[in-house]
Amino acid sequence: MRQPFGQNFLTDESIACKIVDSADIRPGETVIEIGPGKGILTALIAQKADKVIAIELDRNLASSLAGKMSLRKNVGVVSRDFLQYELPAGTAPVKFISNLPYAAATPIIEKFLPWPDWIEAIVMVQKEVGERIAAGPGGRDYGVLSILTQYFAKPELLFTVCPDSFYPHPKVNSIVLRLTNLHPEPPLPGLFAVIKSAFQQRRKTVLNSISSALNLPKKDLEKLLISAQIDPKLRPENLSLNQFIDLTKQLKNDIIA
């Protein structure tokens, strides 16, 4: 029977060990585990981390996990939706380790990316989501999620996990990836608005898609694109992050917030 929140619980101990080993947890580090479920990763993390914060949405699972971890003084179980959880200040260095729920993986990643205290995340997501996160310009996987993630972090695909490693078995493969925080400067105001506008109609040229989304005259936008050394006939998936930054600087007086 599928669980109330649609979890696919990792059951393969060897995969769990491989995930935790990939985090290379060092003395003094705090680990935040998002969606620990029944705790297959939690127990392994607790052996290495100074402090573990396990954030579980399902109250029954959170209560059960708290009982299992009651003798481990370095583990705290929080029964809350991570998307509503206020990340604690002054806890650096922090690593995230998580078998992310498929349906919430993107908003969860988007939440922690701008937070300054994390240094690395080892997360398992649906394979196609991981491939989008790591994609470079020029392919169909490259899009808003790729650019948003790569602004804040360096992604690295580690290994694929088959459905047999979970219960219940998902219908798709999963992938584990490492995100390393690049500690960038705060985003240029309007940058992500420009990126999202470009990909609203990704089959169109960057000139047509941005002009339509931001309600900018094509003639004016064409001049700005050329000033940013961008061919107006390119499609958005052909633009690098740096090109979007250059374009945003050109558009700084015309962006619709």
Question: How would you characterize the overall build of this protein?
Answer:
- Helix 3 links the parallel strand 3 and strand 4.
- Helix 7 packs across helix 8.
- This protein has a seven-stranded mixed β-sheet. A two-stranded antiparallel ribbon has the order 1-8.
- The protein is α/β, with parallel strands linked by helices and 257 residues long.
- It is built from ten helices and nine strands.
- The longest helix has 11 residues.
- The termini are far apart.
- The chain folds into two domains: 173 residues, Rossmann fold (3-Layer(aba) Sandwich); 61 residues, Helicase, Ruva Protein, domain 3 (Orthogonal Bundle).
- It is elongated and about 65 Å long.
How are the SSEs ordered, and which strands pair?
Layout: E1 9-10, H1 13-23, E2 30-34, H2 40-46, E3 51-56, H3 59-68, E4 75-79, E5 94-99, H4 105-112, E6 118-126, H5 127-134, H6 144-152, E7 153-161, E8 166-167, E9 174-181, H7 191-199, H8 206-214, H9 218-227, H10 241-251
Parallel strand pairs: 2-3, 2-5, 3-4, 5-6
Antiparallel strand pairs: 1-8, 6-9, 7-9
Helix pairs in contact: 1-2, 7-8, 8-9
Give the structure's gist in a few sentences.
With 257 residues, the chain is of the alpha/beta class.
The global form is elongated
Query: By helix and strand content, what is the structural category?
Result: alpha/beta
Rg for CA atoms: 20 Å
Order of helices and strands: EHEHEHEEHEHHEEEHHHH
What is the topology, as strand order, of the major beta sheet? 4-3-2-5-6-9-7
Number of domains: 2
Query: What is the total tally of β strands?
Result: 9
* Count of helical stretches: 10
CATH architecture term of the largest domain: 3-Layer(aba) Sandwich
Broad CATH class of the largest domain: Alpha Beta
CATH topology of the largest domain: Rossmann fold
User: How much strand?
Assistant: 15-25%
